[in-house]
UniProtKB/TrEMBL annotation:
The active site is at residues 558, 601. It comes from Trametes coccinea (strain BRFM310) (Pycnoporus coccineus). Gene3D superfamilies: FAD/NAD(P)-binding domain, Glucose Oxidase, domain 3. Coiled coil: none annotated. The keyword Transcription does not apply. This is GMC oxidoreductase. The keyword Transcription regulation does not apply. One of its GO terms (molecular function) is flavin adenine dinucleotide binding. Residues 1-18 form the signal peptide. It comes from the Eukaryota. Residues 116-139, 308-322 form the Glucose-methanol-choline oxidoreductase N-terminal domain.
Length: 628
């Protein structure tokens, strides 16, 4: 699908505040003729997680006009998006349906790459996990940016600003019986946000197998974590979810930050326009095509790209900023030669194991096995916005390598890491490796994530119930790229994750599969299991497990890094103000600026980046805002 096949032109004019109440924030819909004539201060390209939040925040400043160009439609009050138990992934109405090129290290497997094609972007189709990485992972951002404000202490106010943590009436801290340590959670409530746009809450319903897995992980040395928001995300937790429990709906960027209805138009973005003074480019407008005719919308202050880690590099390249060799191949004049654009692509790679559970053990398979029960649950949700369609899986654990492997195995893994690290010549990768090596050796930061899926994933049989565990490497060595595939802006980009191309990643993934299977052999989880269905318990050599990984792997939909924030001489694309090198006023505000992956699902961090970018683009607001 193209970068901007259906572009929605939206105009925000001095919204007093971002709010979930549409009546309090009424942006002005624009026809193409109106849109190009308006004297914009800012144009934001991409109304996804970051772009929607940032455009709304910029428009809070009185007298400021913000144009938002989003690839996709508006789906407010759409049950396919709002209902926590449903998903828009794989539906062309909501998802770009991108795919990777074949991945050689995974047996030429083609990876599905879901990306939200709607106002709110991927915040409207993701799994809603809401969490932060550990403090030292955010502190590493200050190493890349050479700016102390990109640190745990510097970002925490913005992480708090974006969220409203909610408690379910009658339960002082939902899920705390799972976490076992209520006092630790209550003592850390000062790190949560209570006045932000996105509602973060715990699951209101948890199946019994979740507790079995938690107890089993505890017995294997993985502690519970009562407050992963407080700067240490390691351990097992009942994660927060971006779900408004009072309404029983997904809480995402479109209805919370943007809070409006607007007019859809077929605007096809092609590139950013610049003027040049000396060696510096100044972004002046965004070109787009409607009905075969080309238009340009102009901005007096800034152009901000928020098209995400997959599409932002493509738009930069279409605009003449990128690797000169690649641009020349597609007949695009090079304005700024920045070879790192589109490089440094990082993703979380997961592999799953599955077990059939005993009769009477309830899971979400109830909805699959009993149509009458599913229909009843649908009626309950329609009437009260409660029940199983208001719930989802929520067990997440971040483990160190020390939690999973023996000291001898850790030594072997680090030797593999060191050998690969010695072969890299990229300054950016060398800096990344020095940081990751310390994390792995000290065991103070999550290296592996485990997710519980309380339902069948692999060919579930009728009338049977299953539990699956997904294990993923969250600080991978493998680096991929995303680049334009054509000078035609309607062509999809070429996405090559190069997943598992690193021997270190392969060896960690093998250890992950072994650990997942070990969980299934330990009580109390083993007490509810009939059999392990995946992988085949009889195929257990490392080579066989690698073949299984080829079959059972998938990405976490957490793509980052393709316009990295780092010094230019170390391979950076943007500086600490998120300004593209060689330009005076072109910023990138999305997950592509994150230079090194984090042990967290990315949406909460991306919202925080957007909140921080608001004061970078409009510094006077720094002294006005309350960063509660």
């Amino acid at each position: 699908m193209p970068l901007a096949q259906l572009l929605t032109a939206l105009v925000l004019v001095a919204c007093v505040q971002a709010t979930s109440s549409a009546s309090q924030c009424q942006p002005r819909p624009a026809t193409v003729a109106q849109f190009v004539k308006l004297p914009f201060d800012y144009i934001v390209v991409g109304g996804g997680t970051a772009g929607t939040a940032l455009s709304a925040r910029l428009a809070e400043e009185r007298g400021v006009t913000v144009g938002l160009i989003e690839a996709g439609n508006i789906h407010l009050n759409d049950p396919n998006i709002d209902t926590p138990g449903l998903s828009g992934i794989g539906n062309a109405s909501f998802d770009w349906l991108f795919s990777s090129v074949p991945q050689p290290a995974l047996g030429e497997k083609v990876i599905s790459v879901p990306r939200g094609k709607m106002l709110g972007g991927s915040s409207g189709i993701n799994g809603m996990a809401w969490g932060r990485a550990s403090a030292r992972e955010y502190d590493a951002l200050s190493t890349f940016s050479c700016d102390s404000s990109w640190s745990w202490a510097g970002l925490l106010p913005f992480m708090r600003k974006t969220e409203t943590f909610t408690l379910i009436p009658g339960n002082p801290y939902p899920g705390i019986s799972l976490l076992q340590d209520s006092q630790a959670a209550l003592d850390s409530l000062d790190v949560d946000g209570f006045n932000g746009s996105i509602v973060a809450s715990h699951n209101s319903f948890i199946f019994d197998p979740v507790f079995k897995v938690v107890e089993t992980l505890n017995s294997l040395g993985v502690p519970t974590n009562a407050e992963p928001q407080a700067g240490n995300a390691t351990g097992v937790t009942n994660t927060l979810l971006s779900i408004d429990r009072a309404e029983g709906v997904r809480s995402y960027a479109a209805p919370t930050y943007y809070c409006s209805h607007a007019q859809d138009s077929n605007y096809h973005a092609t590139k950013v326009h610049f003027t040049k003074k000396g060696n510096t480019l100044t972004a002046t407008g965004v070109e787009f095509v409607v009905g075969g005719k080309t238009y340009v919308a102009n901005a007096k202050k800034e152009i901000i790209l928020s098209a995400g880690a997959i599409q932002t590099p493509q738009l930069l390249e279409l605009s003449g900023i990128g690797n000169a060799t690649i641009l020349k191949q597609h007949g695009i004049k090079t304005l700024i030669d920045l070879p790192q654009i589109g490089e440094n692509l990082q993703e979380h790679l997961f592999v799953a194991a599955q077990w059939q559970v005993k009769p009477g053990v309830e899971t979400f398979d109830l909805l699959r096995n009993d149509p009458a029960f599913a229909a009843q649950q649908q009626k309950i949700y329609a009437k009260t916005h409660t029940g199983l369609f208001a719930a989802t899986d929520s067990l997440i654990a971040f483990l160190t390598l020390q939690n999973v492997v023996s000291p001898a195995e850790l030594e072997s893994l680090l030797a593999t890491f060191d050998q690969e690290a010695s072969e890299t010549t990229s300054p950016l990768t060398q800096l990344q490796n020095s940081i990751r090596r310390e994390w792995f050796a000290k065991g103070e930061t999550g290296a592996i994530e485990i997710l519980q899926w309380t339902r069948g994933l692999f060919d579930p049989a009728a009338n049977l119930s299953y539990v699956a565990l997904l294990g993923g490497i969250v600080h991978p060595s493998s680096r991929g790229s995303v680049h334009l595939n054509s000078s035609n802006p309607l062509a999809a980009p070429t996405i090559d994750f190069r997943l598992a191309s690193s021997d270190f990643d392969k060896q960690v993934l093998i250890q992950i599969v072994k650990f997942l299977q070990k969980i299934g052999t330990q009580s109390p989880f083993s007490d509810i299991i009939v059999e392990q269905t995946n992988p085949d318990p009889n195929t257990q050599s490392d080579e066989e497990l690698l073949q299984y990984i080829n079959f059972a792997s998938s990405i976490g939909d957490h793509s980052i890094g393709t316009a990295a924030m780092a010094p230019k001489d170390k391979g950076g694309v943007v500086d600490h103000t998120l300004t593209v090198y060689g330009t005076s006023n072109l910023r990138v505000v999305d997950a592509s600026v994150i230079p090194l992956h984090i042990a967290a699902h990315t949406q909460a961090t991306v919202y925080a980046i957007a909140e921080k970018a608001r004061i970078l683009a409009s510094p006077a607001r720094m002294f006005v805002d309350s960063l509660a």
